[in-house]
Amino acid sequence: MDTPCNESILVCVYYGPNGERLIKRGCKIANLMQAPLYILTIDPKPFDELDAEKVFYIEQWKEYANTHATAQFMMKDNESRPVSKVIAEVARENNITQIILGQTAHSRWEQITKGSIINALVREIPFVDLHIISVARYIRDEEGIYEKGIRAYLIKDGDRYNLSFNHHKDTLYEGIFFKEADTDFNHGIFRFMKDDETLQVQVTEGIVTELKNVDLQTAMIRDNADES
Questions:
Q1: Pairing label, strands 129-133, 98-102
Q2: How far from the centroid of its chain's Cα atoms is residue 142's Cα?
Q3: Which residues form the UspA domain (predicted)?
Q4: The domain 9-133 is classified under which CATH number: 3.40.50.620, 1.10.10.1590, 3.40.50.1010, 3.10.25.10?
């Protein structure tokens, strides 16, 4: 696609809430430059082998792409090649001039490829601008406080919401539940989409009292106080 400044933006996202921030940054740059926007994620596993948590984020990214007139979501699954090779290939095929990467995704992909993705991209596509965005750590990296996310649902019950792991006709919200480690109760964080915004709410013994976005550090401090 030809644009007034002949720019094309590629946002590379990895699983976790940081993807939303990277995509919004990409949308902002694309709007300013009147440029097409591409959103890319890469996974070594086939799509049909991905867990509910990963599928949830992929669905979110597709929705974000649909809200931008010139955006396109792309997924490279069952991919055994180094991530830098795949990104470079996508960049060439779509005449990408600027690539946006998150710091967390960079670190994760370094582990996968056993090398620096930044240095590899500079060698592969030296004339593409790279933007490295500093982002907060993914919830699973918070010192092992939360277990792996699983698909869950919220059901309205009076002035509160009950957490369920089965879909019911009365289900209001579908999302991912991150249970606190080392507990037999359903304490943790429920992350879901509401009005095109990602929210994470506190769950205590399987109950959400209000749909108020919580800061993870605040939630952890409160939990530690309860334990003492």
A1: parallel
A2: 16
A3: 8-126
A4: 3.40.50.620
Mean pLDDT, rounded, for 157-182: 89
Helix (H, G, I), strand (E, B) or coil at 125: coil
Q: Compute CA 228 distance to the chain's CA centroid, rounded to the nearest angstrom.
A: 33
Would you state the structure tokens that stand for residue 131, as one six-digit string? 């933007």
Where in the chain are all domains bearing CATH 3.40.50.620?
9-133
Query: If you average pLDDT over residues 147-164, what whole number do you get?
Result: 90
Instruction: Provide the pLDDT for residue 56.
Output: 84
Q: Report the amino acid identity of residue 99.
A: I
Length of the chain: 228
> Tell me: the pLDDT tens digits for 197-219?
778 899 999 999 999 888 655 44
What the block records as the tokens of 58 is 């992929």
> What separation in angstroms does the CA of 127 have from each of 23, 61, 222?
22, 27, 48
Nearest Cα residue to 147 out of 158, 139, 136, 155 = 139
Is residue 185 over pLDDT 70?
Answer: yes
**Both tokens assigned to 195:** 């009005």
State phi, psi for 223 to the nearest 5 degrees: -65, -40
Contacts of 112 (CB under 8 A, 6+ apart): 44, 83
pTM score: 0.60
Tokens 């919220």 — which residue? 154
For the record, the structure tokens of 185 come out as 């109760």
The encoded tokens of residue 146 equal 């939360």
